[in-house]
Amino acid sequence: MKNVNQFKGKHILVLGLAKSGFAATNLLHTLGAKITVNDASPEGDNNDIAELRSKGIEVICGGHPSDIMEKGFELVVKNPGIPYTNPVVVEALRKKVPVWTEIELTSCLSEAPIIAITGSNGKTTTTTLLYHMLNIGGKQPLIAGNIGTVSCSVAERASEENIIVLEASSFQLMGTETFRPKIAIWTNIYDAHLDYHGTPEAYRSAKANITKNQTQDDYFIYNDDQSDLREFAAQTSAMTIPFSLQGRKETGISADDEWIYWNGEPFAKRSIIKLPGQHNLENILSATAAAILMGCDKAAIEDVLSSFTGVRHRMQFVKELQGRMFYNDSKATNTLATKSALAAFTKPTILIAGGLDRGHSFEELRPFMTNIKAVVALGETAEKLSEFAASCGIVDIIQAKDVKDAVQQAYPLSVEGDIILLSPACASWDQYSSFEVRGDQFIEAVMELK
Q1: Residue 309 in marked binding region
Q2: Is 386 annotated as a binding residue?
Q3: Closest CA to 110 of 31, 35, 163
Q4: Is 121 annotated for ligand binding?
Q5: Helix (H), strand (E) at residue 174
Q6: Which segments constitute the Mur ligase central domain (predicted)?
Q7: 62 known ligand binder
Q8: Has 123 been labeled as part of a binding site?
């Protein structure tokens, strides 16, 4: 960690405790700041609160006092999930008090170069792929952000010998001012999180913060197959590295049916790749480009390409049973992610889907339903999904009470050679506390099948 004095004696409000708030509070306290923590949840038996108070840190729980910004704070560090419509955030911005998320702290403090990955889809897979490439290549990577440890905690222990591989959401990137990764990766852009950002333009603007402060000494890896991202690439000061699935390109990284190319030269054969799906090829290209730029040797990259079969809960191969292949894609919490999953398979597929009803349509999935032989619907959207499946000409449609019941009902519908895929196209919160819990129940149910 860099030796910095910019926080010493500063009066800082940490808004929202949770994992990132707890980490940011401890770090800022170590750096000599005067901290107040404010969390909307009741105090309960939270051990973190007791630990913070034992250090002399003020903690206010159970709501956001309307006058809290009258305490003279010079900086607010907020939990990424707290919207900018929150009254405390609104008042802070009115008073022209900076409002950060903790990845801004990471940028201020890290001695290690940062590779930041964002995108509407593919962030976690790209981050994991890149981490493994760098790790096998002896580059001492540390994984951080949405996928791992809170990034400012990683920055605290990182040295110049490390590389921080950071998954960054639009929520996190919106709360940055000087954040500057050595390499920025933008996998793709689709409309998402509009309930938080308000407009597609605001969402894109938040994402664009990943490259806003980059210079000609940095790299920006982007999806050249998307016109929106080509426009953002034209605005960056960084060296641009395009990736494309549209055949061999003379610059950047690209792919055709046989090869991955680096600056127009064959680099690795497509046939060694184990991870299924065109959308995952995007992730592979962007991760490979970053690994090459960081000096990873080809053998390390090919080792990962030939062995990596997926991130837990994201197109994760679970098991083969009597010729049926089970895949856990619980992280597919929207139709865009499920569309990518369906496009990855050409074999007959039994789709387990459904969950929290946010009022969205399943219509985007229609062109990808041709290989679906049966649908098992669950959650709040079970009826809506069943009606949609019937309109696609699917005859075998079952409604299940939960994921475990869905697996038990899906298996008898299958024959040897079929895919049984959990890809809900919906958030989990109607029945499960997280998509991880939902995916874990799927894995457990598959393992129990005889």
Answers
A1: no
A2: no
A3: 163
A4: yes
A5: helix 170-174
A6: 117-291
A7: no
A8: yes
